[in-house]
Structure formats: structure tokens, C-alpha cells
Design a protein that fits this description.
It is built from 20 helices and eight strands. With about 525 residues, the chain is α/β, with parallel strands linked by helices. It folds into three domains: about 240 residues, no CATH class; about 45 residues, no CATH class; about 170 residues, Rossmann fold. Strands 5-4-3-6-7-8 form a six-stranded mixed sheet, with helices on both faces. The protein has a two-stranded antiparallel sheet with strand order 1-2. The N and C termini lie far apart (about 90 Å).
Length: about 525
């Protein structure tokens, strides 16, 4: 074989394949990303809906690697191990804009805090990534536009190089089979080799320009805001009942993402979620502290996908090339064998019935706080495998909402309950009568708690006294929260425990009482 052909064969050798992703990760994380894209339509839309580099309609799309950026963001929130940005020489030059985004986002305290809520939780990680999306687009259309354009050009050149390499490799195989190259084949190989060389030189120039591009204060500002929005999104996801890490029987991924989006995008619901998050952290802690000397211990073997609780034989499957695939399948089906642990929080019994005042005097912050504390009760009930029932009332019952712990949370019910407006007068006996009817028709509720949340001062009547006696006979404990005033005579007589709530910015004396008093 002549020297020219040997030289062309050497040029047919492929360049080192660099990574399309920019953060460190495990193969499992890539697999979970693919599965989440497949299972969650809303997340798939966020990944596949590629933004344009410029804001004008005729601008070119940031096509080649937007999905890779969403992949990076997802993995950075989901990975078990702390992620880091890959060195420049390990990543394709066309992903330099992505690398800069991830470099800044991962450097923030907000990202580190977010990971405590999203790690190994695919839906929460997806929602955090989706919430970072808009600011990432703002960066690529603004402060990082030139970098994005250069990255797109680098992608075009990389494709040229890969195409030339594929052609050269095909020709090399054909010549090997023939035993000798024709003149036509020699010319074709020379053409592809030149094409590859020229594209390589152009790519080197574009890469040098990208490497010289500084990270500006404006870059950092936009991407810091992106990390903050990711954290706020994760907080909302963690706050909502039946969602977030540790929640069992969770709703379908799209329902969870849709519910979280509605709370994030509605100012009033967003405020409810913030209050709810603060309340739940405090209430769960105080509720767990009711038992001293408690600790988690193995109670049973169940199925799931909590890596830290898996049986040893399940982890051994990761070492076997065939069983490894079965492990990934079971992981996504949540059917791996794991230990079921029970600790200090498994202390309650019976369902919770929340009687919530929605009269006109409850408008504003009172209503927001009442919705938040109702949702906190639902979350606690769900966590402790208890059913919850919410009765919304004015002078009549305006809504009833049942949340069974064995069923995934109904997103539509949560939104409807949280979105009811406050108006009209107050008649607590109407709501308590509805609670009596519900308990009577559901024997499983006969060991229950009722929580009344109101700012009114109802009259304690003969009907009230009969209801009080009825609940005593059933063994139902009643707790009252008076918002913004001293405990009314109605709550004092009707309830076993009652308290005033003045500070409506989060947890307070009322939530402390509820955390420790309910069964």
C-alpha cells in the first residue's frame, strides 16, 4: 500500500470522543433522566422545546445541545454523589455554553441547599431543572448570547469532523476488502481528510474564542437567580402533601409537576407553599419529639427504591452485567427489596378532620395561613398513614375534600381546596354537623381528631352542646385555633385544647399545639 494511502488511513482514525454532558454523574443518573423524560410529559416538553438563541422569531434555534443542558441540570439535582463540572478538555467544545451555566449554578449555596431536597428524587429534580430553565434561556439570549452562538458554530464543525471521519472509516473498510485502492477512492479520501482538517482548524479558532470569553458579573447575576428559582421550586415540591422525598403512594409525575407549577405560578398559592414549608419543618420536629429515646429500627421488608435502605442482595446485582439491567428496571418500578424503618414519628392513629372557616373576615393573610395549616395537617396525616378530611365553611358548607392515605394525592382537590375564596358569614355548627355525618358514615373515623381553624366568635348553642356530647361519645378529640384574637367562648367550650394564633408568618403557638395534641 503506497505512502499516500497510509497517510490517509492515519487521518481516518477517529478523534477522541468527548463528553456531551458537562457534570460528573453515574450511569444510573443518565438512566433515570431518560426514564423521567419518558414518563413525565411536562418534563419532556421542557427538554425537547428548544429555545432560540435570539429573541427575534427569525433567529436560529439553540438546537444541538439544549437537551444536554437540561440533562446536566437534572443530574446535578438528582445525583447521589456531589456533582462537579468536568474539565474543559473532557467536554465537547460545542457544550462550552452549557459548561459555563453549570459552573456558575453549581457554585451557589442555593444549589447545594436544593440538593438536600432533590437528591435521588426524580420528580423533584425534574421540577427544579424546569424552574431553572427560564433563567438559563434568559442567559443564552442575553449575557451569554455570543457564547451560545459560538457553541452552536462549534457544534456544526464537530458534526463536519464526525461526518468526515465516518466517510473515511467506510472507505478504509472498503479498501481493506478490495486489497488495493482505486484512484477514485484515493481522491475521495483526500477530499474527506481535507474536509476534516479544515473543520478542525476552524473549531480550534472558535474554541479559543470561547475560552477567552470572560465570565462577567451579569453572567453570574442571571445564573445565581436561576439557582435561587431552582431552590424555591424544590421547596414548593417538598411542602405539598404527598410529594417530595419520603412520600409514599405519590401521584403520577405529570400530576405532581402540574400541581407544583400551579403553586409556583400563583402568587397566593406560592405564599401558602412558603408558609406550609416553614410550618411542616417545625411541626414534624415537635411531633417526633413527643416520644423520648426513640430511634429508627427495622420493622419489616418492603419494596421501593430508597438506595440507603436496600437489602444487600439487591445491591450485589449491580456487579452482574445481566442483573444490573434488572436492577435499573426494578429501581424505576420501585420494586426493589428494602428495609422498612419505623421511628419516632410513627405515633398517631385515626384520621384528621379539618374544619376551616372561609368567611369574609378570613380574607388576606388569615385565609392564606388557614389554608397552609390545613395542608400541613394533610401532610402529617399522609406521612403517618392517616386519612384526612377538610370541611370548608361559611354560613354553610362550601366544600369537602377527602385525602385517603392509601391513594395518591388528588392534585385537582388540593388546588380546589387551596383556591376557595373567603366570603360570607360564619356558622361553625353547620361544619361540625357535616363532620358528625361524615364520621358516622365512616366507622374507621371513630378514633379521630377534629381541628377547627377560625377567626370568628360563634354562639355556643344547644346544637353546639349536642355535637360536643356526640363527639365525646365517639372518642373524638377536638382542637381549636383562634386566628388573630383571644380564644372565643365557642372554641373554649367545644374543644379539648384551644389556642390563639397571632403570628401568621409560619409556625406559632397554634402549630406547636397541633403538633403535640393531635393523636
Amino acid at each position: 500500500m503506497d505512502n499516500r494511502i497510509m497517510s490517509l488511513f492515519r487521518q481516518a482514525k477517529r478523534t477522541t470522543r468527548l463528553d456531551s454532558q458537562t457534570v460528573t454523574r453515574a450511569k444510573l443518573d443518565d438512566h433515570v433522566f431518560d426514564e423521567t423524560v419518558e414518563r413525565a410529559q411536562l418534563f419532556r416538553q421542557a427538554v425537547e422545546s428548544r429555545p432560540t438563541i435570539g429573541e427575534a422569531d427569525n433567529s436560529q434555534e439553540y438546537v444541538p445541545h439544549w437537551d444536554d443542558l437540561m440533562h446536566d441540570l437534572f443530574v446535578s439535582y438528582h445525583a447521589q454523589e456531589e456533582p462537579s463540572v468536568l474539565p474543559q478538555d473532557q467536554v465537547k467544545q460545542s457544550r462550552e455554553a452549557n459548561r459555563r451555566v453549570m459552573q456558575q449554578v453549581l457554585s451557589t449555596d442555593d444549589h447545594a441547599e436544593t440538593r438536600s431536597m432533590t437528591k435521588q428524587d426524580s420528580v423533584s429534580a425534574a421540577f427544579a431543572a424546569m424552574s431553572v430553565r427560564d433563567k438559563a434561556i434568559e442567559f443564552l439570549q442575553g449575557a451569554g448570547k455570543e457564547l451560545a452562538e459560538q457553541a452552536q458554530e462549534a457544534g456544526r464543525l464537530e458534526q463536519k469532523i464526525e461526518s468526515a471521519e465516518d466517510n473515511l472509516q467506510q472507505m478504509r473498510e472498503e479498501i481493506a476488502q478490495q486489497g488495493q485502492a482505486t484512484q477514485e477512492q484515493k481522491d475521495a479520501m483526500a477530499k474527506q481528510a481535507k474536509r476534516k482538517s479544515n473543520a478542525g482548524h476552524e473549531l480550534a479558532k472558535v474554541s479559543a474564542a470561547m475560552q477567552d470569553a470572560p465570565n462577567t458579573v451579569e453572567h453570574a447575576k442571571v445564573l445565581n437567580e436561576a439557582a435561587k428559582e431552582g431552590k424555591e421550586a424544590a421547596q414548593i415540591m417538598q411542602s405539598l402533601p404527598g410529594m417530595g422525598r419520603g412520600s409514599k403512594d405519590r401521584m403520577a409525575p405529570d400530576d405532581a409537576l402540574r400541581l407544583a407549577q400551579m403553586f409556583r405560578d400563583n402568587p397566593i398559592l406560592a405564599e401558602v407553599a412558603k408558609l406550609l414549608g416553614r410550618m411542616l419543618r417545625d411541626m414534624r420536629f415537635k411531633r417526633a419529639r413527643r416520644i423520648t429515646g426513640g430511634r429508627e429500627e427495622i420493622a419489616d421488608v418492603t419494596i421501593g427504591n430508597e438506595l440507603q435502605h436496600l437489602l444487600p442482595q439487591e445491591l450485589m446485582a449491580l456487579r452482574h452485567p445481566v442483573l444490573r439491567k434488572d436492577f435499573f428496571r426494578k429501581y424505576h418500578e420501585k420494586s426493589l427489596l428494602q428495609y422498612e424503618l419505623r421511628g419516632t414519628e410513627e405515633v398517631g392513629f385515626g384520621p384528621l378532620v379539618i374544619v376551616k372557616d372561609s368567611s369574609s373576615s378570613m380574607r388576606g393573610q388569615k385565609h392564606i395561613w388557614a389554608v397552609a395549616v390545613s395542608m400541613a395537617m394533610i401532610a402529617i396525616a399522609n406521612r403517618e398513614k392517616r386519612d384526612a378530611y377538610v370541611i370548608d365553611y361559611q354560613t354553610r358548607v362550601t366544600g369537602t375534600f377527602e385525602f385517603l392515605h392509601k391513594a395518591p394525592l388528588d392534585a385537582a382537590q388540593v388546588i380546589e381546596m387551596a383556591s376557595l375564596s373567603a366570603s360570607g358569614g360564619t356558622n361553625t355548627d353547620v361544619a361540625m354537623t357535616a363532620a358528625d355525618e361524615y364520621i358516622t358514615n365512616a366507622p374507621k373515623f371513630q378514633r379521630s381528631d377534629i381541628v377547627i381553624v377560625s377567626d370568628g366568635a360563634d354562639t355556643y348553642s344547644q346544637t353546639s352542646e349536642k355535637l360536643h356530647e356526640r363527639f365525646n361519645e365517639l372518642g373524638v378529640r377536638i382542637h381549636g385555633v383562634q386566628i388573630g384574637a383571644s380564644v372565643s367562648s365557642y372554641l373554649a367550650k367545644m374543644c379539648e385544647t384551644s389556642v390563639s394564633a397571632y403570628d401568621l408568618s409560619g409556625a406559632n403557638d397554634a402549630t406547636d399545639l397541633l403538633a403535640t395534641a393531635i393523636a
